[in-house]
Amino acid sequence: MSSQSGIRVQTEAFDVADVIAGLGAGNPAIGAIASFIGLVRDVNDGAPVTTMTLEHYPGMTEKALQTIVADAHGRWDLIDVAVVHRVGELRPADPIVLVAVASAHRGDAFQACEFIMDFLKTRAPFWKREENSQGTRWVESRSSDARAAGRWKT
Description:
By secondary structure, the chain is an alpha+beta fold. The protein has helices at 16-22, 60-75, 106-123, 143-150; strands at residues 6-10, 32-39, 43-44, 47-48, 51-56, 78-86, 88-90, 95-103, 126-132, 135-138. Strand 3 and strand 4 form a beta hairpin.
């Protein structure tokens, strides 16, 4: 993998174009790249969000992400994958996560990108704390995320 692809957990913002350009390092076998960018919303469950702080368990988080990406490689014919997830304090409209998948065909790229994101939401050890004018609260996992990941089980 090139220096721009792979798995990264970081506090700094990421450059989407640089990460995507790094996928497969110009490999001519790549026929499709699918990506997903998650952003901080300004409202969650009806409450305004002023900041979101993401925490993780270093080492364990990267290992969980590596397992998810390896599972995707086992299901689809992928050429390269990049997952970049931010931690620390973020504000509305800040990018949180980028998943980008390169393959020969769009179907594999789309499905693998969605699979990785679904399992990232349910299996990667990240914790989110939101702040608003009423105070601070931890964001709990959503049943919709578990349902989304559940559809991939065989």
